[in-house]
Amino acid sequence: MASPLSTLVGQAIDLVVPVAEDGAPWMTPWRDSRAGRELAAEEARHPEPEPGSWPWLLAPLVARCALLVGVEEAKVLRLALDADATSYGADVLCRSLLESLSLMWWLLDPDVDAPGRRARGMLYKWRTAVQTQNAVQHVGVQPDGDPAEYGELPEQVERDAASFGLNLKGTPRDTCNGEGWPSYTERVAKLVSNIWPQPKLPYAVLSAVAHGELLGLTRNVGSKPEGAASLRPVQDASGTWLWYDAYLASGALLFSAERAADFLGLEEQMRTVQVGRAGIQESLKALRPTPP
Q1: Which of 38-47, 135-144, 231-240, 246-255 reaches the highest mean pLDDT?
Q2: What is the Cα–Cα distance from 23 to 68, expressed in whole angstroms?
Q3: Which residue of 6, 35, 74, 249 has the fewest C-beta atoms within 10 A of its own C-beta?
Q4: pTM for this structure?
Q5: What local confidence, expressed as pLDDT, does residue 142 receive?
Q6: What DSSP assignment string belongs to 204-259?
Q7: Is the pLDDT of residue 119 over 60?
C-alpha cells in the first residue's frame, strides 16, 4: 500500500507547488484580491515616510515560507511511506508538516482583517525572538559578547511594535492588539478540523511518537501470540498509521494551498487544487485499511 500512498502525496505536492513557489503574487498581490485590498489599505494608513505596508507584509511572507517548508517536509515524508517499515519516521515528519502548515493557516485566516494580520505577524516575530533569546542563554554568551549577533531579540521586537503603534504584551499572555498566540495543539487543530472529526487527536498522538512517550512508542508494536512478554512490529498496524500520515499530510497541504490561493486571488489555481483534492481524498478513502 505504501507505493500508492506515496504517489498520492506526490500528487498533492504537485498541486501545492505552483501556489507556493511563485513569489510574485505574494510580494505584489493582485489589486482585487484579499491580499491586494489589505495591502492598499495598509499603504493608505501608513504613507511614506511611515513604514507603509511592511508590518502587514510580514504575515504573508512568513506564511509563504511556512507553506514552502511544508512542501519540503512532504517530499521527505513520501520516502518514509515504506511498507517494510514502521510508521515512526512518517509520524514525526507528519507532525512537523502540520506545525509548519498550521502557521500559514493561522497567518492567512480569512476571518482576520488587515490590522489583525499585522498584529499576528508581529506576534510571530516576538515568539521567534523569545526562542532565539532562550537559545542564546543556553549557548552561554560571554559578558562582552553581543547576543543580538545570533538573531533578533525580544527587546528589538518590542521597540518595533511600539514604533508601529502596536500594543505588544509578552509572556505569560503573548498578545498583540488583542491577537493571542495559540499553542501548537490549538493551531494544528484549526487546520486538522477540515479533515479529521477529533481535530486535537492526531497531533497529540504524533507528538507522543516524537517525544518518546509510551503511547507513541507502542504505536507500531503489539504483544506476541500466546501471551509472550516481548513485543514485535505489527505490520497491519504500520499500514494503518502510514495511511493516517498520508491522509493528514495530503489534506493539510491541499487545504493550506487552497487558503493561500484564495487569499492571493489565484482563482484558477484554487479551482485546480479543489478538484485535485477531491480526487486524492477519494483515492485515499479507497486505500484505507481496516484498523488493527
Answers
A1: 246-255
A2: 11
A3: 6
A4: 0.90
A5: 66
A6: HHHHHHHTT-HHHHTTTEEEPGGG-SSEEE-HHHHHHHHHHHHHHHHHHHHHHHHH
A7: yes
- Taking phi over 0 as left and psi of -120 to 50 as alpha, with beta for the rest, 52 belongs to left
Spell out a b/e string for 88-99, using b for 16 or more CB atoms within 10 Å of the CB, else e.
Answer: bbbbbbbbbbbb
Tell me the residue ranges of DSSP E strands in the chain: 168-169, 175-176, 179-180, 221-223, 231-233
Residue 151 in grid coordinates? 538573531
Mean pLDDT across the chain, nearest whole number?
89
Residue type, 162: A
Angle at 63 between CA 106 and CA 66, to 5 degrees: 100
Task: Quote the crossing angle between the two packed helices 88-107 and 184-192, to the nearest 10°.
Answer: 90
Tens digits of residue pLDDT in 180-214:
999 999 999 999 999 999 999 999 999 999 999 99
Cα–Cα distance, 66 to 17 (Å, whole number): 13
